[in-house]
Prior knowledge:
This protein is an all-alpha fold and about 110 residues long.
Amino acid sequence: MHDLLDFLGIKAPVLIAGLSGGILRALSRHRYKVREMFASPVCGALAAAYLTLPVVSYFKATGLPIPDPAEDATTLAAAFLIGVSAMWISDILFEMIVRKFKTGGPHHD
C-alpha cells in the first residue's frame, strides 16, 4: 500500500490526517446522512493528499510565519484542516454547479 501511495505522490500521514478531518466533519453534523458519513472522510483524505503541500508552500511563499522545526506538524495540521473543510467546499461547489445548470439551461419560449 505504501508503494502505491508513493507512486501516486501521496504521503500516508497527510492522507490519514485528511481522513481524520473528514471523519470529524462527518461526526460533527447535526443530521447524519449515510452519503456524508462515507463521502466526507474520502473527500477529506483526497483533498488533503493533493492540496496540503501546495497550500503549505503557498503559505511559506506569502511570508506567513510557519515554524520550521515543526514543519511535519504544520503540514499534518494543514492536512487535517483541509480534510475537515473539504466536504464543505465540495458541497458549495456542487451547489453552485447545480444552480448554474438550473438557471443557465435551455430556455423554452
